[in-house]
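Researcher: Here's a chain I'd like modeled. Treat it as a single chain, no partners, no ligands.
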Amino acid sequence: MEFLSTLVDVVLHLDVHLAALLAQYGTLVYGILFLIVFCETGLVVAPFLPGDSLLFVAGTLAAGSGLDIVTLCGVLLAAGVLGDNTNYWIGRVVGPRVFRWEGSRLFNRAALEKTHAFYEKHGAKMIIIARFLPILRTFAPFVAGVARMTYVRFFLFDFLGGCVWVFSLCLAGYWFGNLPFIKNNLSLVILAVIGISLIPAGLGYLHHRNAQAS
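Model: Modeled as a single isolated chain. Structure tokens:
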């Protein structure tokens, strides 16, 4: 419970915590931000780390502090792409070892082939859309690796998705984060960013339930 309350406090007051890190470590904060985004996108055990909200708040800091927005976007883009690619290759190595139990309903050769076919057909959309979906953002590249999605195809769409994700959120924070209303209600804005990012997953769940009911 203590870990959860600490995590909630960090997420809701990212501006305060990042400002404190910037004051204490200066430009080394670029490395800290790189590490957070890399872990959130590259390690399947770290989907709880802030993603969308972190990019937005980092953009607001760049508008009013010593962070350079161009450098910030470059660092975060590199972290997101390298994280996804690390996740992809972990999945690619682990996949054949996991999907080898023919007696299993989920982890068998047929399931692997179906997953591969799905990613070859829909993987491009999945990789781009997943950038804006918490948790799925962490697992999609791993599953793409498990499914052995063609790497060149994965990399191109992952890079494209990373560009859209990083630049849209960082620049939104940079351009709008220091407006009086947003600045005075940043915790609510962070909650709104998180809530908006969860809407597609909620709609997908409702669609799936309705499909099952019918």
